[in-house]
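Weekly sync notes, structure subgroup
Attendees: PM, AL, DS (notes)

Item 1: joint prediction request from the bench team. They want all two components modeled as one assembly rather than separately. Inputs as received:
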Amino acid sequence: MKYMLIMRDSAEAVEASKDLDFEQIINAMGAYNESMIKAGVMAGGDGLAPATEGFVVDFAGEKPIVTDGPYGEVHELFNGFWIIEVASKEEAAEWASRAPLGPGTKLEVRRITDASDFADFADNEYVQKEAEWRAAGL
Amino acid sequence: MSGIGPTVDAVWRIEGARIVATLAKMTGDVGLAEDLAQEAVVEALRQWPESGVPQNAGAWLTAVAKRRAIDAWRRRERLDERYRAIAHDLATASDDEWQAIDDDVVRLVFTACHPVLSRESQVALTLRVVGGLTTAEIARMLLVPVATVQARITRAKKTLASARVPFEAPDPSEWSARLGSVLGVVYLIFTEGYAATTGDRWMRQDLANEALRLGRVLAQLLPREPAVLELVALMEFQSSRFAARVSGDGTPILLTDQDRTRWDHAQIRRGTAALARADAMGRGRGAYGLQAAIAQCHATAPSVEDTDWDQIVVLYEALGRLAPGPVVELGRAVAVSMATGPANALRIVDALAAGGALTGSHLLPSVRGELLARLGRTAEARRDLLAAADLTANERESAVLRAKAAALPG
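Output from the run, pasted for the record:
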């Protein structure tokens, strides 16, 4: 089964990270990624560009409103993720706890759904279409 | 999360190979290394509920196991030079500095698949010490009692000790044959999962997934061996069909009838990438590479009719020259039947039967029955399909063959 490790940083952690040696971070992350590749569990992952480049689409009103931020009631920023393929929840927890992260950062670990989660809706047109889209590599 | 057991199992799964490799390097004995690692795991089950899981759990387990080894030697009053050195290392090294060496894991892989061991022992020992599975998990996946798995592992350890198998990677002169043995063990684990030969299940995806993980680990350990990547590609292509191979009630669905949209296309892309990397090494395709290429033809074809059967025939011919055998010949027959019709294929199958090949296997009569059915020779087809149904040990497969026989006209 696949799990997503979602990196959530507090605003303070993001601010504090600016003082860190970026090359050191790259090395620590690289070693962590390599350990998962060597173990045959890595299935993907990416980092996100700074939140200041991002924007928000808010559905509070009648029409969605696009703003540059601020992000509102968000206390942690989603800054990157890994996808790993493991045999159990505990194994996902073990890998997550090895990430080279520090105070102010959390990893939220979520199982990624697969077709079996939608087995009750196998006849649904879009569930079937989705299978075709995946087949086409979309 | 409930109980420490699953967490210890997860740590073992991640660290087991490196722990055993480190201990085997130290003791020169994989069997002893596994015993010591086991004792450390028991200690973890006792201590971790109180102390919590250590920051570097692998180093903790290795240190505990090393201490056990030294205690045992002290008891035997055989603390010679070599063990004195180990004891010194242990006293001076911090637990967190533990770093397993990839080369030791490579030695472990070759030792677990050593030719002095029976295939059963190689499989059990590889899953245990390289795959990091518990004996209970191995028993569940292989559908045998836990005691049987334990017995196979014990026998493997005794055999390695009595044959004085050194903890080494093979010499260049033996390298290729020994690598072949390692890949053979991994592929056997995969095929046992992919086409379960016994029991009421058509396939056991968890076992096949373990083999695929072992293959990926090997590809990292031996990056210059195209055969490893070829095997990974083959397993990726084959397992991409898992979801489509069985219906909701567990009935197998044959290639012709599979919903191709349910194939795992991310996996097909990974297989394609692995085969391309193997090809790029420029040493020509081996038997796994040719089988991977055949699987790729299926995996990338929109339907059975639109499959490049001519290309598959050519690949089977090459495979037949490289690794001749009745199963390959039977595969060629099926491809020929699709490329140029069942009559040509039947000649190949009948030649195989006349040579006495595959006697007692369900494979030959099941293919022959299929060909005869397409030729309209229904009475003979029925007889072969029912014979195949009687011969297979897999209950699901037997049911499918009987259903086919029953569906024949007349």
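Discussion: Chain B touches chain A through 30 residues (CB under 8 Å).
Action: AL to compare against the crosslinking data before next sync.
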